[in-house]
Each structure stands twice: as structure tokens, then as C-alpha cells.
């Protein structure tokens, strides 16, 4: 099966998932611009990127599975790596910023637990 032989319902599904993923990622990027403090800004892109990535990879897996005629899960490995590394990066950035703010004596620093 080539891209020209793809059924219309499958093409619409792939396009809808890809556009939804791009929209969620865009929403996360807009949150980065709109929110005021670093601690607010760090969450929006992380959540948007994770959900957007999941939708786009689902779109890719559906398309490749239909084109190859078998279940294709190799893109899920990308999703696993991004799902693991994105929250870890968020945590490390937030902890480093909190430590810096506490060291500098900023009044908006989160309390130490």
C-alpha cells in the first residue's frame, strides 16, 4: 500500500491526530510566553510537549501501520524516551532555580521542604 492507496478515513485520522498534537504543543509554547514567573513558565511547555508528542507519535504509528500492513510500534520507543526525559528535565530546572533563588534571598523563592 502506498500513500495514494491510503483510505480517506485513515488519512483524516492521521491528519486530525497530527494537527491536535501540534495544537497542544503550540498551547504549551504560548503558555511559556504568557505566564509570569519561571516556576509558572516551566510547566506549560513540559505538559504541552508531552501530550503533543504523544498525539503526533500516535499519528505516525497509525500511518506506518496502515502503510506497512502490520502493527508498527518503533515510534513508541521515541515516546518512552521523551516521556521519561521531559519531566526529569523539568524537575532539575525547577530545583536549580529554587536553589539559586534561595541562595540569592529572593522573596518569591519556594520554601525548602
UniProtKB/TrEMBL annotation:
Signal peptide: none
Pfam families: PhaG_MnhG_YufB
Superkingdom classification of source: Bacteria
This protein's UniProt keywords: Membrane, Transmembrane, Transmembrane helix
TM regions (residue ranges): 6-32, 44-64, 76-94
The name this protein goes by in its record: Multicomponent K+:H+ antiporter subunit G
Organism expressing this protein natively: Methylobacterium goesingense
Upper taxonomic lineage: Bacteria, Pseudomonadati, Pseudomonadota, Alphaproteobacteria, Hyphomicrobiales
Amino acid at each position: 500500500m502506498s500513500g495514494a492507496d491510503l483510505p480517506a478515513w485513515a488519512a483524516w485520522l492521521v491528519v486530525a491526530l497530527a494537527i491536535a498534537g501540534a495544537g497542544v504543543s503550540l498551547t504549551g509554547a504560548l503558555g511559556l510566553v504568557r505566564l509570569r514567573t519561571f516556576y509558572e513558565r516551566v510547566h506549560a511547555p513540559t505538559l504541552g510537549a508531552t501530550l503533543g508528542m504523544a498525539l503526533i507519535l500516535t499519528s505516525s504509528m497509525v500511518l506506518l501501520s496502515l502503510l506497512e500492513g502490520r502493527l508498527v510500534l518503533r515510534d513508541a520507543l521515541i515516546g518512552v524516551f521523551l516521556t521519561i526525559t521531559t519531566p526529569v528535565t523539568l524537575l532539575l530546572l525547577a530545583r536549580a532555580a529554587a536553589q539559586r533563588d534561595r541562595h540569592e534571598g529572593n522573596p518569591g523563592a519556594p520554601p525548602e521542604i
